C-alpha cells in the first residue's frame, strides 16, 4: 500500500527524495516556504534579468553521475555536453585554467612550477587513483554513517579488495599528503587547491578529509556543465515529476510544528493547515528542526544532528549583476575564480558565474547576468552597524578585484544588488544566512557525518548539512538515502 510522505523544503535534497518516492508510487506532499523551488540552487528575476541564487556550475550529469541517474530514473533525461575548459582560476602570481582532460590539466599546472614537476605529477597521480577507487562506491552509494542492519549490509557488500588501499588514508588530510609529496611549502600551488576546496568542501587543504578532497579535485574531470538558465532547472524538472506522478507541491507553506500521532506524523504550517503523513523528510535548514518539535521529541534527535543544529557554518555575500557585454572587449567566461592571496573569506576569494551569450533564459541578447559569491563569517554581520559596513566593504572589494582583471567592468554594469546574509535568511530560511554545509574536516566527514536518520522513527533529514555534504550532488545524495530508507529499496 502506498505511504503518505511529507517532504518539508524544496531544496535539491527534498526534491530528489520527493521525486524518487512519487515515481515509486508513494503519495508525496512537498511543502516549500518560499515561492521558488531549489533553495540555494533556486533563482529570482529582476526586470528582464534572471539570476541563479548561487554562483555554481552543473555537476553530476555525466553517465552514471548522481543527477544523471536521478533524471534517468524519473524519465527526464537532461543531456548536456561537458565543458572542456571548466573555469579560469586567477591568483596573485598565476592564472590557472582548469581543463577537463586530466593529463592536459596536470601539464598546465606543471608549466607554472617546473622545478616541482616530478612532485606535482606524483601528487596528481595519487589523487586521481584515489578518486577512481572512491568512485567505485558511487554506484551502490552506501549511506554513512550506517544506522541500520540493512545499511551496514549495503556498505559491507559494496567493499571490494581494492578499497583496502583507502584505509591508510582514512584519517588523513590533504595537508598530510601534500607534505608526503614535498609540496607543503609551495604556497601558490596550495592556494590554488584551497580555492577549489573552499567552494566544494568549505575548508582548505590543511584540514580537509583527504578521501573527500581527492574526489573534489577529480570530479571536475568527470564532467562540469554550463546549464542554460541555471541549476534551478534541476529543481523544476523534479518538481514537475512529483506532480506528474500524483504528488502535491505547495509553495509559500512554512511548517511551524511537527508532532507524532497515533497514525504517524502531523505537520502544521504557518496558516494553520495540517498535514498527515506516515513519514516525514525534512529538507528545511537543519538549525530549524529542533524548534519544530516539542522539547521532549527534540531531545530524541541524534547527538550529531543536535550539535549540528547549534553550530555555525560559513555565511556568504553575493552580488547579482547584469552587464552590457558590448562595453567589454569580450564576453565574460561562464565560470571564473578570483583570489587576491589574502585568504579564502571576506572577498579575498570569490566565484563568478556568468550567463553565456545567447542564453536568453537569463538575459536578453547583448547582456549577461553575473552571480558572484564570497565566503564570510557570521561575526562580521551580527550588528546593524557591522552589517551595513561589511556589505559596503565587501561589495567594493569584489568590484575592485574584478575591475583589475576585467577593465571596464564597472562601466558595463546596468543592474547590481547584493545578497547579504539576511537576504539569504529571508529567501531560503537559513538562520543567519548559513550556507554550504559543514566544512568537510576529519571530525565532520564520512563516518562522522550527520546521518539522514534523525534518531526518531520515520523522521528523516536531507540537505547540504547531511552526509555527504554540500553542493547539489551532496544534497541530492542525501535525498536518495532518505528515499531509499522509506521505499526499502535502492531506487537509483
TrEMBL record:
Domain Amine oxidase: 12-486
Alphabetized SUPFAM superfamilies for the sequence: FAD/NAD(P)-binding domain (SSF51905)
Descriptive protein name: Phytoene desaturase family protein
Species the sequence originates in: Planomicrobium okeanokoites (Planococcus okeanokoites)
Lineage, opening ranks: Bacteria, Bacillati, Bacillota, Bacilli, Bacillales
